[in-house]
């Protein structure tokens, strides 16, 4: 499971939500990203550092992009429906995609946003599984 890969990154290496999910996704889905590549998602944590779109969602979109885009997003038939499904699932769970709305629902000082990261992993994994079943 995707979330089996998060604790090492989130706690042991102290990555934020977005960094944790992209590292875990890289491991689990064998995306072929290098550590330097994953630095790009660092600013996505804490809702792009200002409470905007949740970094876990942005990292999820990055995983979907790596899985479903061969060269250009606008040439991919897969990226729009799979991304929309992920966003819909987040909105159903939290009522929002904004960090400032999600954080009060799951943040705890002793484990920060771990619950959101775990939920994101479950959503990403389910969206991919459902999409690939329909694509067959």
Which percent range describes the beta-strand content?
under 5%
In total, the number of domains comes to: 1
* CA distance, first residue to last residue: 21 Å
Structural class: mainly alpha
* Series of H and E elements: HHHHHHHH
Tally of separate helices: 8
Which residue ranges are poorly predicted, with pLDDT under 50 across at least 5 consecutive positions?
A: none
Largest sheet: none
Mean pLDDT: 96
Radius of gyration: 14 Å
How many beta-strand segments?
0
Q: Roughly what percent helix? A: 55-70%
**Shape summary:** globular
Q: What would you say this structure looks like, in words?
A:
The protein is mainly α and 136 residues long. It has one domain (2-135). It is built from 8 helices and no strands.
Short note summarizing the structure:
With 136 residues, the protein is mainly α.
Helices, strands, pairings?
Blueprint: H1 6-12, H2 17-29, H3 35-38, H4 45-51, H5 55-68, H6 79-94, H7 99-106, H8 114-135
Q: Can you tag this structure with a few keywords?
A:
8 helices; globular; mainly alpha; single chain; 136 residues
